[in-house]
Specification:
It contains ten helices and four strands. It is mainly α. The protein has one domain. The strands form two sheets. The protein has a two-stranded antiparallel sheet. A two-stranded antiparallel ribbon has the order 3-4. Strand 1 and strand 2 form a beta hairpin. Helix 3 packs across helix 7 and helix 7 packs across helix 8. It is elongated.
Length: about 280
């Protein structure tokens, strides 16, 4: 049996995600440079009195559109921002970009799972969903059933079920994939902000089969919480870098966005390899 199509699909997915990750790194660099520019501007104004600093360090923004009734410009909002306000918007904007890049990465992951399923279902009825016994379910319908497809692979491939949880990277791939799946839903349908963060965490833990696991549930819940804002950004899916050390000119961060995307890639690799191993033995 020709196993090359499995490798080809995996390589295609990896190459597509590499583009998404390149966008993320560009976004990080642009945000960093913008903050540097704002800090330089703040230093330039340091010698002035408070009133002059406020005036020269502020920017005014008017928002408008052309009225369909008059054809004239119709203002609808205006804002005045100081340097601190602008820096905060830069941070929020970067997070918004990261959110949508996670959406793109997860949807590429869904496309990969569907392509993998379409390939294996044509070769073996053993790997068909119960509602797809004749292997004719169209891709649009299959994309809605990606979680069920993964569940089916997990049940039929014991190696997959094991490596998802226990692996050399010490990453619960099932949990991370469930997080990405739920975060994608919140970003697309709720503007990136969960109305009830605890309920969202409960759903993720249930999907990851951790809801009743007294040994692992607390750590998993804490991991989910690392991706959810508090205070004035309560409920917001937070994907920007998480600072872990600052001092002596050295900075260390945890790249939350990259952690989730890397787990999707790892999960794709394990699914593909487990299928290849199963087919090879058969």
């Amino acid at each position: 049996m020709d196993l090359q199509p499995y490798t080809t699909r995996l390589e295609k997915f990896f190459n597509e995600v590499a583009v998404v990750q390149h966008y993320q790194r560009l976004s990080a660099n642009v945000a960093k440079q913008t903050i540097v520019d704002l800090q330089a501007r703040d230093e330039d104004l340091a010698g002035l009195d408070a009133e002059a600093r406020e005036i020269l360090g502020s920017s005014a923004h008017l928002f408008s559109f052309y009225s369909p009734y008059t054809g004239a410009i119709h203002p609808y909002s205006h804002k005045r921002l100081n340097l601190k306000d602008t820096a905060r918007l830069v941070h929020l904007h970067k997070n918004k970009q990261y959110q949508w890049l996670l959406v793109e990465a997860y949807e590429l992951f869904e496309d990969f799972v569907v392509s993998l399923y379409e390939l294996v279902r044509g070769e073996s009825a053993y790997f068909r969903l119960s509602k797809d016994g004749n292997a004719t379910m169209p891709p649009a319908e299959l994309k809605k059933k990606v979680p069920q497809i993964i569940d089916m692979f997990r049940k039929k491939l014991s190696e997959l079920a094991k490596i998802e949880i226990e692996n050399r990277s010490s990453t619960n791939l099932r949990l991370h994939t469930c997080m990405s799946e739920k975060f994608r839903h919140v970003i697309v349908h709720k503007n990136g902000k969960a109305g009830d963060a605890e309920a969202m965490a409960d759903e993720i833990l249930k999907r990851a089969n951790l809801a009743s696991d007294k040994a692992r549930e607390p750590a998993a819940r804490a991991k989910i919480a690392n991706y959810v804002g508090i205070g004035d950004v309560a409920g917001v899916i937070v994907l920007v870098e998480q600072p872990v050390f600052r001092g002596g000119g050295v900075a260390m961060d945890i790249n939350r966005h990259e952690n989730l995307v890397n787990s999707l890639m790892a999960h794709a690799l394990v699914m593909s390899q487990c299928l290849v191993n199963h087919i090879g033995k058969a």
